[in-house]
Amino acid sequence: MSSKDLIINSIRKENVVKNCSLPDYENFGITFEDKIEKFKQMVKSVGGEAICLKEEQLDEKIKELYPDLNLIATNVTECSLGNIDANEQEDAHKLKDIELAVVKGEFAVAENGAVWIQNSENRHRSLYFIAHNIILVVKKDDIVNNMHEAYEKIAFENSTYGVFVSGPSKTADIEQSLVIGAHGPKSGYVFFIE
Amino acid sequence: MSNFDHPQKAKDFVANDERMHWHDKALWFVREKRDISSKSIPEWETLREYANQIKTHTMANLDKYLLEFEENANKRGITVHFAKDAKEHNEIVHKILEQNNVKKVVKSKSMLTEECHLNPYLESKGMEVVDTDLGERIVQFRNEPPSHIVLPAIHLKKEDVAQTFHEKINTDKDNSDPTYLTRAARDHLREKFLGADAGITGVNFAIAQTGGVVVCTNEGNADMGASVPKLHIACMGIEKIIPRLKDLSVFTRLLARSATGQPITSYTSHFHGPVEGGQMHIVIVDNKRTPFLQSNSYQKALNCIRCGACMNTCPIYRRSGGHSYEYVIPGPIGSTLATFRDPKKYKTLSFACSLCGSCSNVCPVKIDLDSQLYTHRQDLREKNIISNKKRLAMQFSVWLMKNPTLFNLAGKVARKIVPLLPKALIYNKLNVWGKQRDIPTMPSKSFKELYKEEQK
Lengths: 194, 456
Fold this sequence. Notes:
The complex is a heterodimer of chains A (194) and B (456). Chain A is built from 5 helices and 11 strands, in the order ααβαββββαββαββββ. With 194 residues, chain A is of the alpha/beta class. Chain B has 22 helices and 10 strands. Chain B is globular, with a radius of gyration of 25 Å. The chains are: A alpha/beta (194), B alpha/beta (456). Chains A and B meet through helix 1, helix 4, helix 5, strand 8 and strand 9 of A and helix 2, helix 3, helix 4, helix 8 and helix 10 of B.
């Protein structure tokens, strides 16, 4: 008998767990009067920052935040500072020197400061982690209250990957001291475009 | 191995009084962060109940959901393997790596691969295996197992880490600044990520409906490891399955808040297929999990989502350290899992509990941890694998309590005699309880006597 059959049979044999129904999440979960404000507060608590700005201010703000960065990858059409096209690289290793990734986020979640990134057209999912700094660009109206609303908007029909990103990468593995910038980006901003 | 003894192991940890208190406080701090975070969610208790329902429903239909998961994962070009035990799991992983000429592997946190002892197995086959979670890398350098499932190096101080990093990656011996050490590890591990031929990750949740897996990290190490090399192997126990994509909404709200008090982990990655031109494999392992489904008393132990909240709150864990449990998962959940799987070896673990019940109160999926540990004690007595000392003491208590006249007399005598006894006699070798505690002052009357007087 294959191990698969062994396991399935063994699960079926005398399983005493009593069945119950699955919960329904419609209209369930915390909501906020000002979702953007809540998001700003939450993302700050996890070491990031959210900024609201107009489309035409995008480049200017990036230059202000990162005046010394040279290698920038972006898939945001409103940003003209990109000088390396991640999708043109055959090999993910070639992305290792990217100093800043300016990436489109699908929507933001107010309750936890997370942004959902799916970008099915992006060739290298490693871009979000290998870049030394990251800016996630989200339309100001694309924000939900909580994770129940968030998962209503997510599907994987034409996609092999998606990630919630909440702030820059971090660790507290040495004496519980929070250090921003573990393996992924060392800084993380969320831009809400009006 | 059969004479593993938790009190004996804990003694080593407690010997360093200052460090024990430091450990205790560090974990209590995490517990407090969990409280603040959970209390900011008005529907927290409903969420816990939902999580309990999802897990219970899944376990009752686990065969169906495993097959649904396999089918959907296959449709996405993911290869699914089943392993009945640790040995088969290791062999499958090794075979995939060997077929792809892999020499160097980066790994992110996975308690399952710890349980299966995958690292030493692959190393014995000549492969380099690098743990990439910072805490795990620290303990790997030191040749120690993790002492906590979320905070693997919580038993160490920054000076210990500075010493280890100085020896292994040549950092400044006298610089124990956590930022400095983390940056050094970042550079060291970046090289490992870029040089790896394959990435192995654990799995937090596997979605039957979509055939994909979800991995939660703060450091971004699982994501780097699974997306830079072309080959990704994800290893999971059969209990990681959840039915629907939207059920993740419940668990992503509970997991990080329960674990560290964060609103969500920095990264919640949903892997639903290989990277371009690459391969993705999922190895699903039983390794003595199915017997839990057949047990009325212990079935809920399989519902654990490995947040670590039960250990952060446990007064025994905080003061005895993860290594004193000698099981891959320490703390209350580890004690019940270990005792169920190997009651002879782990017979002391269900007694590493004051039955305060705090673990069950913080558990995000409502596992009845304290009552499981209480039940274990009775099962051990039934099976006669409890220590003789404990057995005789229990038998004596039973005998005494069955004789009310004798019990009253014994109480009366004790109240009169004990205060007169010299300390050396009270705190003798047999009085294990009195080792670090004082016997309370004897009252002049028993509860029974006081009650009778009140009734007059």
